[in-house]
Amino acid sequence: DVQLQASGGGLVQVGGSLTLSCAASGVTFGNYYIGWLRQAPGKEREGVACLGARDGDTYYGEPVKRRVAISRDSAKNTVHLQMNNLKPEDTAVYYCALGDQPSIARMNYWGQGTLVTVSS
Questions:
Q1: 29: how many CB neighbours lie within 10 A of its CB?
Q2: CB 107 within 8 A of CB 35
Q3: Mean pLDDT by groups of 10 residues along the chain of 120 residues
Q4: Alpha carbon of residue 85 to chain centroid
Q5: Partners of 2 in the beta sheet?
Q6: Are 69 and 60 in contact, with CB atoms under 8 Å apart?
Q7: Which of 16, 25, 100, 116 is the S-S candidate for 12 at Cβ 3.0 to 4.6 Å?
């Protein structure tokens, strides 16, 4: 079974930083795209960042561009999302996912989500 375990969420003040981690089991990243997505209350799920495991290409959502960085630890089969200068609008449940394309619609496997709350 493919399992994605997201962790690292919590309460942080405006302007603070947080690193989320996604540990994968039952699968190696191989040719997958590893994505971080988020969903705030009452809003649609949106893409935050995505990493192509084969070519290393990265993709970032416009609201978070220049404030987040996605990286991979191949030895630990883990992907990280470093988030800086956090804003109240970053408050959401963050999910990691694997897919065959860098698209929300093409994410085949999903983790359980980790809550990030940014307080002002």
A1: 18
A2: yes
A3: 96 98 92 95 96 93 96 93 98 96 90 96
A4: 16
A5: none
A6: no
A7: 16
H helices present in 3-118, as ranges? none
CA gap 114, 30 in Å, rounded: 24
How many Å apart are CA 103 and CA 34, to the nearest integer?
10
Rounded to 5 degrees, what are φ and ψ at 95?
A: -120, 145
In this prediction, residue 103 carries a pLDDT of 87
Say what the alpha-carbon torsion angle 105, 50, 24, 32 is, to the nearest 10 degrees.
Answer: 70
Structure tokens at 2: 């493919």
Nearest to 96 by CA among 80, 110, 82: 110
Amino acid at 95: Y
CA dihedral in degrees (56, 111, 95, 55; nearest 10)?
10
